[in-house]
Write a structure and sequence with these properties.
It contains 14 helices and no strands. By secondary structure, the chain is an all-alpha fold. Helix 8 runs antiparallel to helix 9, helix 9 runs antiparallel to helix 10 and helix 9 runs antiparallel to helix 14. It is globular, with a radius of gyration of 18 Å. It starts with 14 loop residues before the first helix and ends with a helix.
Length: 260
């Protein structure tokens, strides 16, 4: 496989190497093994914010699918490590996010600065406004804007049309992400809890994890805690940054096809 990365000093890696290296990359914990430069090929098969976190793929997926916490692109490796080592308590994991609020906002800002593709349209602008509201302390407004602004992108990233049911979204999110290039699937994992069944007409108890349905159909302010608001904005940023990468890949493929 060939990658255009002149700054890396190397632009080729075999599939055999690519399959073998994650065994080392996925166990690297910067707090135990010291600082190491990221391999230029790591982001090809893993999200760059996983580098150095020392958290297993199964634990990363559990954070996302059980607690609705985005793990792709944001938050940082250090925050992921703290989340994974915290108890299973949802409230305690939310407190980790709240304690890392400034760090999370800064990384979201960095990721959005990388999102410049014209195909993103207004979605990137919505993400900018949601992040600005969050940074200004308007958490509930940021969360509502982020949840509404992310829905079209969620359908696109899951390869479903708007005619699909919400259960179809959770079914896609629950699929086994096995395979070398399955890291993109982790972007969808938070949808398992985000779209969990909840009916206002039945007076169901509000879910523990952030619920799109509860926010849209009842808007319980106690559910829009600071931690859940951080999650909502992180999810939109994660989706937008993933879309940016996907669009870049499509454009590269189009250029390769046109020059072939």
């Amino acid at each position: 496989m060939t990658f255009i990365d002149p700054a890396a000093g190397r632009n080729q890696i075999s599939l055999k190497e690519l399959r073998e290296l994650p065994a080392v990359w996925d166990t690297y914990d910067s707090t135990k093994h010291g600082p190491l430069p990221m391999s230029p090929f790591y982001p090809v098969v893993r999200h760059e914010n996983w580098w150095g976190c020392g958290v297993s793929l199964s634990d990363l997926r559990a954070l996302a699918s059980s607690h609705g916490i985005p793990v792709a692109w944001v938050p940082s490796a250090d925050v992921l490590r703290r989340l994974a080592t915290m108890s299973h308590s949802h409230e305690e994991k939310l407190q980790v996010l709240i304690d890392a609020r400034a760090e999370i906002i800064a990384l979201c800002r960095e990721k959005l600065d990388e999102c410049t593709d014209d195909w993103l349209g207004d979605t990137a602008v919505v993400a900018e406004k949601a992040l600005a509201a969050l940074a200004d302390g308007h958490h509930e407004a940021a969360a509502c804007l982020a949840l509404l602004g992310s829905e079209d992108l969620i359908y696109e990233m899951s390869h479903l049309t708007r005619r699909a049911k919400y259960k179809d979204l959770t079914d896609v999110a629950k699929q086994d992400p096995g395979g070398l290039f399955a890291h993109s699937h982790y972007v969808l994992a938070p949808l398992v809890t985000l779209y969990t069944d909840w009916w206002a007409k039945n007076d169901d108890p509000v879910p523990t994890a952030l619920s799109r349905h509860a926010v849209v159909h009842r808007l319980p302010l106690e559910h829009l805690s600071e931690g859940h608001c951080l999650i909502a904005v992180m999810l939109l940023v994660s989706m937008v940054r993933e879309a940016q990468q996907r669009y870049e890949q499509i454009r590269d493929d189009m250029m390769d096809h046109n020059t072939a």
